């Protein structure tokens, strides 16, 4: 996968070239590069922004340097072009899986009060938001999107299960994780994880995933499609999780009284 990030602050993207993503770059699995929009400005001071027509606070990023930068990077090829914006479609795991299948992406980082709409009309395919909040610019969202997508590229992580068993992949939150020692500050690792019985471990993890989602993200659990559970055993695990969660809630209510 190749990702080109258009920004006025290319120095912010060092984290994308370290750790797993950095190793994947060196192995030729990924190519992540930052392009400075200022280099395309035809203004003698290389400005990339100006005051908005109609008045108002702040500045607006100019269309000319953005359009020229995108066209130069694109080089006549068909490439998915994304603008990171709080007014865009909220990024979900499902959306990320779709984007991770692209061979190449261009990410545009906005700043100030936004981007001249004419640049978006000419050169942007879609807008994406990482949440219902506003940041000072698109650089952090671009890093989040790039990291989210790149970790799903084959070869970046050691095994596919490194991301398919994590939160949101199957519409649920991830189960609790434990490591050594077996007891720490009086808190013990659940006995089932020490049993060596892979089936029981898998059932425990699935139940904990259900219960954690019911507790922390009832909105997410409400969307969980139980018809995807095709075996009697899987349906039994879900039923047990619901019963255990109900007991937990009843106990909590009794303590509150």
Overview of the molecule:
With 257 residues, the chain is α/β, with parallel strands linked by helices. Helices cover 39% and strands 16% of the residues. The protein is built from 9 helices and 9 strands. The chain has helices spanning 19-26, 63-74, 93-99, 117-123, 139-150, 161-164, 198-216, 218-222, 232-256, and strands spanning 2-7, 31-36, 49-50, 60-61, 80-90, 104-109, 126-129, 183-184, 187-188. The strands form 3 sheets. Strands 2-1-6-5-7 form a 5-stranded parallel β-sheet. α2 (63-74) runs parallel beside α4 (117-123) and α7 (198-216) crosses α9 (232-256). The longest helix has 25 residues, at 232-256. It starts with a strand and ends with a helix. The relative contact order is 0.12.
Salient structural properties:
alpha/beta
Topology (elements, then pairings):
Blueprint: E1 2-7, H1 19-26, E2 31-36, E3 49-50, E4 60-61, H2 63-74, E5 80-90, H3 93-99, E6 104-109, H4 117-123, E7 126-129, H5 139-150, H6 161-164, E8 183-184, E9 187-188, H7 198-216, H8 218-222, H9 232-256
Parallel strand pairs: 1-2, 1-6, 5-6, 5-7
Antiparallel strand pairs: 3-4, 8-9
Helix pairs in contact: 2-4, 7-9
Element order: H for helix, E for strand = EHEEEHEHEHEHHEEHHH
For the report, how would you describe the main beta sheet? 5 strands, parallel
Measured as a percent range, the helix fraction is 25-40%
Number of E strands = 9
User: How far is the first residue's CA from the last residue's CA?
Assistant: 56 Å
Which strand order do you get reading across the main beta sheet? 2-1-6-5-7
SSE class = alpha/beta
- Taking pLDDT < 50 over at least 5 consecutive residues as the criterion, the unreliable ranges are none
Shape: elongated
List the total number of helices: 9
Proportion of strand residues: 15-25%
Radius of gyration: 23 Å
- Overall pLDDT: 94
